Amino acid sequence: MKLFHKIFLCFVVVFSIAFQAAGYLLISFSYENAVEQEKEFAFQGFQYNKYILQSIMYSEPQFFSEKKAGNVAFADNFTVPVAIYGIDGECLFSNMAVLPEKLFFEEGADDRISYQIYEKDGESYIFVCDYVSQGNIETYLITQTDISSAINNQKSMITYFQKIYLMLLCISFPVIFLLTKAITASIKEVGKVAKRIAGGEYSGRIHTKGKDEIGELASNFNQMAEQVEEKIAKLSDMARQKEDFAANFAHELKTPLTSVIGYADMLYQRDLLREEVKSAAGYILNEGMRLESLSLKLMDLFVLDKQQFVLEKMSVKEMFQNLEQGMELVCRKSEGVLHMDIEDGCIKVDYDLFKTIILNLTDNAMKADSKNLWMSGKQESNQYRIVMKDDGKGIPLEELGKITEAFYMVDKSRSRKQHGAGLGMALVSKIVEIHNAKMKIESDGKMGTEVSISFPLQEEIVYE
């Protein structure tokens, strides 16, 4: 059974039970009050007729001793139908058309008045009975009071109430239906959106303005959907990167291996002149160096993914003093000039990884035909910012977002000539992540590139 039907039936059942219970209590209360009033009226009538009987017993005792109470004229003295019985249970007088099937005489005079409600042929009566004595005369007096109007009023109220109940039930059905639909609308929306998400449409969201529990559910569902969409996007991106990695890796291997196999086969199959042999060997050497560079970079990437590194506090100025000679050597090979301006500061690093970052960035700058490389470092708030800027060819704006992807090369032909495989910046990005640092790459695509890396600043090392 659907939730809509459950809520609808619950509303109908609760409404029916509540309305019927309220009606029953109201009619019962009204009936009890009416009966109590009739009883009070019957007791008052009984007391009045008791006084009349006692006065007759006092003034004309011969009527009872001679058992002449059956005289019809005797009935004119009473205000309601009565019956008079002797102490032995013999009826002395009665002008009642109806009598209870079982009479209820209480022996003795204990001031307790007995009553009985009796119904016959659609009529209802209250019979009141009590012991009455005067002098030597002892009798039982029974009075009859018609309460059919009170009983009929109750029956009329029940009939009228049932009509009202059926009318309200007919009116409430569409109202309950609309209320149930309004309550379950948001839940249905959640189900529809969940179904779309299950079908691969991860951008689906629930639009609701309510601030109740269902509104909170919709809000939480939207947050969950956003997280799912982000995770799916990341997984899709990772899958794409893996596919690209595999394709690029295969491509990077294919080209040098084809050259190596081709030239090796030529050397093996043919008798060549010395110059031709030297040229073929040069090609084999060149492509072999490319394969060596590729394997080393790949090994570094795999190691970084699986190894846990211990970061130690180190002085930035001291590290660059040790790295300056290696950086200048890289620059001189490409006829570039290194300019350094390093302010002292303390950061947590793995020195070998930090060295890999700096030398890779220096090598990339020189491969971009830079003639000058400016390296600076300074403290900024709670960070230490290292900036490397060159005057090379730059990176096109549309390429900046892909620069850290594995096997990505801005100028593929130039990179291959320089034994590049497009793994340097991927390696740098991974090392930056290990150091909890942030890297930013900027270029106008025409001239020069600026790479800035911000490391969390540490307290200065105190030497004792």
Automatic annotation (TrEMBL):
Residues 248-459 form the Histidine kinase domain. Keywords: ATP-binding, Cell membrane, Coiled coil, Kinase, Membrane, Nucleotide-binding, Phosphoprotein, Transferase, Transmembrane, Transmembrane helix, Two-component regulatory system. Gene3D superfamilies: 1.10.287.130, 6.10.340.10, Histidine kinase-like ATPase, C-terminal domain (3.30.565.10). SMART domains: HAMP, HATPase_c, HisKA. The keyword tRNA processing does not apply. PROSITE patterns: HAMP, HIS_KIN. The chain crosses the membrane at residues 164-187. This is histidine kinase. It catalyses: ATP + protein L-histidine = ADP + protein N-phospho-L-histidine. It is found in: Cell membrane. GO terms for molecular function: ATP binding; phosphorelay sensor kinase activity. It comes from Parablautia muri.
